[in-house]
Amino acid sequence: MRKLGMRASQVLIAVAVVVVGMVAAWLIGLNFAVMAVLVAVVLVGAAGLQLIRRGSGERSGGTARFVLHVVAAAAVTFAIIQVIPAGRDHPNPTVTGEPEWADPRARDLMVSACFGCHSNEVQWPAYSNVAPLSWAISEHVDEGRAAVNYSEFDRPQEEAEETLEVLLEQSMPPDYYTRFGLHSEANLSERQLADLIMWVRATPGLSDTEDGEDTEDGEDDSEGD
Ligand code: HEC
């Protein structure tokens, strides 16, 4: 440690960088392993800058200089990752089939809240071209489509039956989707959610048929209002 000229304050700064990186990853829904690599690159870069400074005969500056080196290394890392092509391809394959929506308004609400990841009609925002956001977003869409693709209902979509459940639990859309005021259209009001749940129950394939709630139209529902 002495050899590297590491001081307690520098270790603390390094730890802070790790924490900030991980919180940022959580906020934007970026894979933690990917963020760990980015943080490592930044810290190695900053340590390298420290060594260069020392090599050129200067005193291994204080805390402020280390912070400066971390910022410089972060800026260079950010610039370099823009060259990596991953995440910049934004395909929207052909729509081959959709659920038989019980009501067109159900589709509208699903488009607002869910089609950003579970369809072939994804609206890619401008920032989806900027790494590492681009990596996070394309992963969400890839995984979302792999779980359920409401645009490819011509083929079996096993997990589609969990649509009702995720709405009841309010576990979708994921929290990161509506952070920072983004995708406000995906924040359904209580009324919209209640309506959507009603229509989803009545749309084939979107709820577990064992519940027996999405079968016949003429079912005697005691909740009628
Ligand atoms: C930001 C992207 C995104 C949005 C928007 C989104 N989902 Fe998802 N969804 C995912 C991802 C990623 C998965 C798979 C991994 C997981 O479960 O978190 C998933 C999984 C699912 C599953 C499979 C079951 C499960 O819980 O894993 C269902 C059903 C689902 N989503 C329904 C919906 C519905 C309904 C909406 C709208 C109310 C919605 N999703 C909005 C990304 C999204």
In short:
This protein has 225 residues and is mainly α.
State mean pLDDT (0 to 100 scale): 90
Any ligands, ions or cofactors bound here, and which? heme C
Global structural class = mainly alpha
Structurally, how many domains make up the residues?
A: 2
Characterize the structure shown.
With 225 residues, this protein is mostly helical. It has two domains: 8-81, no CATH class; 104-211, no CATH class. Helix content is 50%, strand content 0%. The chain has eight helices and no strands. It starts with 7 loop residues before the first helix and ends in a 24-residue tail after the last helix. Mean pLDDT is 90; it is low at 212-225. The structure holds heme C. Heme C is lined by residues 113-114, 116-118, 140, 143-144, 147-148, 159, 162-163, 166-167, 172-174, 177.
Helices and strands, with pairings:
Layout: H1 8-28, H2 32-55, H3 63-81, H4 104-113, H5 115-118, H6 133-147, H7 163-169, H8 190-201
This protein binds heme C (HEC).
Heme C is lined by residues 113-114, 116-118, 140, 143-144, 147-148, 159, 162-163, 166-167, 172-174, 177.
Question: What key attributes describe this structure?
Answer:
2 domains; binds heme C; 225 residues; single chain; mainly alpha
